[in-house]
Design a protein that fits this description.
alpha+beta; Transcription Regulator spoIIAA; Pdz3 Domain; 2-enoyl-CoA Hydratase, Chain A, domain 1; 3 domains; six-stranded mixed beta sheet; 28% strand
Length: 429
């Protein structure tokens, strides 16, 4: 875990995720509730101070941040809900959907998410700044109710149970979407200019981030690994997958990051080190311009050729991993342009049991590419239609990761070329 005094560094693709950010205990103060009852302004000022010290934009979105503090501390607060409302109003001035306040119930829900099991529909959502700040599906989590219902990355959520999402933040959306297993939620989705209603039954969702198999392909004995999210246990499961496939003498690998919405910074770095012996993995830059750099540790588990599958649902930590391996020429990318989320948040517990996530840095690939709102272009572009995507991921799941999967088929073709080039190089020595 990357835990500091300032909290947990995360790279979730959304302002609030419904299932993808994994955290450990964040040490909420047991005496905090009493403190809050004595002075609601203490909490508001605590949030202000965190933003003042850490927020990535030193202009605070061209706000006079000192004046903002004076204004909100001059107000009278009769109860905690008044203070919560002012905190959200204050943070909205930053114009950053990823910096947000969570009341105790919302913050507890975040912690429940991190246990590896949750009750909900299984999607990551966020505010898409490129699309008029619409509430947008980042990616459905594989094998969840949302996934099986047919929700897709980039779907715009227009209504939740008939209520318009116009101006709704992700915390409010999460509160409406999440619920007890067995109950249902209705989402109105805008896709390709057309609206469609989905009634989805919530369920208990246990998430295992890694699935893998050995496949016989035209490239030979191939290791296929699918990584669904960068949770706390993703590193261990990835290590087990690579170790087992190495024991089976695979010739090369296809790593599938399609529809992977991200997760923890440390998890993406940990997994990158399993594939990369040397070189920079990622650098982050805070508002002072100070650079923190993560590098390989010389302990890669394999040096065999690697092809990575990406698409518009590959975000954040997925982009760190694919960008690191692409820039270091360790892997070849196949698919479509990634989502484009290059911001880092720190999650902080507050004294009353609530929490705040604050954008603290931007991250850059090893070749210093800023991918925020831009994404990463694959080396080999393979487009598939929404209809193909839906058939592949929902109706014909047995074809996923087979030669009937156009993007996987191209990955195998590229892997075959990589293996041939490696064989020729070895023969010339």
């Amino acid at each position: 875990m990357v835990i500091t005094r300032n909290g947990l560094v995360v790279l979730g693709a959304t302002a609030v995720t419904l299932s993808t950010i994994a955290v450990t205990s964040l040490g909420i103060h047991s005496q905090g509730q009493a403190l809050f009852k004595e002075s609601p302004k203490e909490l508001l000022d605590e949030v202000w101070q965190i933003i003042d010290r850490q927020y990535v934009d030193g202009t605070f979105n061209n706000q006079d941040w000192q004046s903002v503090r004076r204004y909100y501390l001059s107000k009278t607060y009769n109860n905690k809900e008044d203070a919560y409302k002012s905190i959200r109003e204050m943070l909205k001035k930053l114009n950053d959907p990823y910096t947000r306040f969570m009341n105790p119930e919302e913050f507890k829900s975040l912690q429940v998410d991190t246990s590896g099991e949750l009750s909900g529909i299984g999607i990551s959502i966020g505010v898409d700044e490129k699309n008029g700040k619409k509430l947008t599906v980042i990616a459905p989590i594989e094998d969840t109710p949302a996934f099986k219902a047919g929700l897709q990355a980039k779907d715009v959520i227009v209504k939740i149970n008939g209520k318009s999402t116009e101006g709704m933040d992700t915390n409010q959306a999460v509160a409406l979407i999440r619920g007890e297993a067995g109950t249902s939620v209705n989402l109105t989705i805008l896709r390709n200019g057309q609206q469609k209603d989905f009634t989805i039954t919530r369920a208990k969702i246990e998430i295992h981030p890694v699935k893998y198999s050995q496949k016989q392909t035209p490239a030979g004995n191939t290791g296929y690994i699918r990584l669904n999210q960068f949770s706390a246990n993703a590193g261990k499961e990835m290590r087990d997958a690579i170790t087992n496939l190495e024991n089976k003498k695979v010739a090369g690998y296809v790593l599938d990051l399609r529809n992977n919405p991200g997760g923890l910074l440390f998890s993406s770095v940990e997994i990158a080190r399993m594939w990369l012996n040397n070189g920079t993995i990622v650098s982050t830059k805070d508002r002072q311009g100070e650079v923190d750099r993560e590098t390989a540790s010389g302990r890669a588990l394999t040096n065999k050729p690697l092809v990575i599958l990406v698409d518009k649902g590959s975000a954040s930590a997925s982009e760190i991993l694919s960008g690191a391996l692409q820039d270091n020429k360790r892997a070849v990318l196949v698919g479509t342009r990634t989502f484009g989320k290059g911001l880092v948040q720190s999650v902080r517990p507050l004294d009353d049991g609530s929490g705040v996530a604050v954008t603290i840095a931007k991250y850059y690939t090893p070749l210093n590419h800023d991918i925020n709102k831009r994404g990463i272009e694959p080396d080999f572009k393979v487009e598939i239609s929404d209809a193909q995507r839906q058939d592949l991921w929902l109706h014909d799941r047995d074809k996923l990761g087979t030669l009937a999967d156009p993007q996987f088929a191209k990955a195998v073709e590229v892997l075959h070329q990589e293996l041939a080039a490696k064989s020729n190089t070895s023969a010339q020595r």
